[in-house]
Amino acid sequence: MKAMTRFFRSSWGILAILLFWQLWVGLSGVNSIVLPSPMGMLRSLAADPALYLSSTAQTVALAALGLVLGVALGTGLAVLTWFSRFLAGLLTPLGIIFASVPVVALIPVLARIFGYDMRTVLAIVVIICFFPAFVFTGAGLRALPPGSADLFRVLGASTWRRLVLLALPAAVPDWAVALRLAAANSILAAMVAEFLMGTSGLGYLFASARSDFDMEKALGASAIATVISVLSFLLASRFEGWAGRNWR
Amino acid sequence: MDTQPAIAVRGVTKRFRLDDGSEFTALDDISLSLAEGEFVTLLGPSGCGKSTILRLVAALEAPSAGTVLVEGKAPAELSRQHRLGVAFQDHALLPWLDVAANIALPFRVAGQKVDEARVAALIRLVGLAGFEKARPRQLSGGMRQRVAIARALVLKPDVLLLDEPFGALDAVTRRQMNIELQRIWTEQRTTTLLVTHDVGEALFLSDRIVVLSGRPGRVVRVVDVPFARPRDPAIMRSALFHEMSDDLTEALAPPAGAP
């Protein structure tokens, strides 16, 4: 009961909008191609759960794998730039250029390279997740507690121990911020790639439902994507809060 | 070998280049030496370059002219061998480590096995028993400085450098920390160079006080402190202490007519 009250208190705005939406569709009598109702969307979800489930599973798996690979790549390269000024000069502008090219423009190019299938979707997610990890980790490795750089010199620390005992732990809070940004974007990036390439997954489900004028199904697909994005954002926010409390 | 000083600073000048390209002399022809097991304080007004001397001995800066030798070698040699202990005004504790892990840090930096018994003994020595698992942000300013001092001592360094370690503390805590540092130091007798602008702190703690003038830093006076060790806090109320304190305060004040 208490949990219900809490849920209602924190999300009554969303519930009110859904209620208003349902009433509006019912009272105005517009058909479901113009504006599907929330109830209609739920009916569509209940009608074919297997279809939604398999599409969702594929998109989430791709987004998660892409997130892990992208963040690992970004973190790894950021550590390399920490080691060498030369690599920093080489990699930093490259990273910025790559992140500035719109994903929509990258997709056709990558599809030519990797083929019109899941590998391209994965590549897109990796690129989207790479950038925040690279930038934030790079900044975090240099955001040291006051006086600690001098301390490590006085203690005669090797470069390796300076990285492991000082720079990496100091980068954890910034790295957590990067993870939060990348986690929310990974689902979005996977869906955009699936949408544009039209092979499989939630993005494809949305695209094909839309072209069939099955707007209830299209809305169902986007509702699932929204819920997953919000959940991964909340999870990553939790981690960020924990990192901030324990590492700063 | 016996006559070789633990720390020898000979004719050191340090100039810094400012952003506008002009040069400014922080230290001018400074010479001083510390015998092994001696506690020497650099006393001077703020901005007199006393911290710069400490940074030169710690190999954090290089002199513009003159030489700095620690145990007859370049000062960087000592830190490379993990035999230097330093406590800064800025406690420089790592926020993600608890008290025990912060004190044990020098072991890990040196690639040595952490001597848990040594860490525990130091925690008791600085009066922090029961706070082993506390994080730096949960501690008061005085407690953080105790952790920093314990960390400086943990590897049993040959040389201890203290840069106004109690500068940010209130007068009461500072006095208490001085009494504790005196007790701790008496047990270890490590060669120590302390930087401070507090006359009472210098008198209570050191064997010898080197008074510096400001801009550029020059040695004005060297004063031997006669009080026998271990020192009782009561000496701070003695007539000699007050007399020397007045004398040093006067030596610190710039001559009349100076800007």
UniProtKB/TrEMBL annotation, chain A:
Q: Which organism is it from?
A: Muricoccus roseus
The transmembrane segments are 56-83, 90-114, 120-141, 187-207, 219-239
**Which UniProt keywords are given for this protein, alphabetically ordered?**
Cell membrane, Membrane, Transmembrane, Transmembrane helix, Transport
Q: Where is the ABC transmembrane type-1 domain?
A: 56-236
An annotated GO cellular component of this protein is: plasma membrane
Compartments where located: Cell membrane
| Protein name in UniProt | NitT/TauT family transport system permease protein
Similarity remark:
Belongs to the binding-protein-dependent transport system permease family.
Q: Which GO terms describe its biological process?
A: transmembrane transport
Q: Specify whether Secreted is a keyword of the entry.
A: no
What is the membrane topology here? Multi-pass membrane protein
Query: InterPro entries in the record, alphabetically?
Result: MetI-like, MetI-like_sf
TrEMBL record, chain B:
* Boundaries of every ABC transporter domain copy: 7-239
SMART domains the record matches: AAA
| Keywords (A to Z) from UniProt | ATP-binding, Nucleotide-binding, Transport
InterPro entries per UniProt: AAA+_ATPase, ABC_transporter-like_ATP-bd, ABC_transporter-like_CS, ABC_transporter_ATP-bind, P-loop_NTPase
GO molecular function ontology, one term from the record: ATP binding
Q: Gene3D superfamilies from the entry?
A: P-loop containing nucleotide triphosphate hydrolases
Pfam families attached here?
ABC_tran (PF00005)
Annotated family: Belongs to the ABC transporter superfamily.
Report the protein name in the record. NitT/TauT family transport system ATP-binding protein
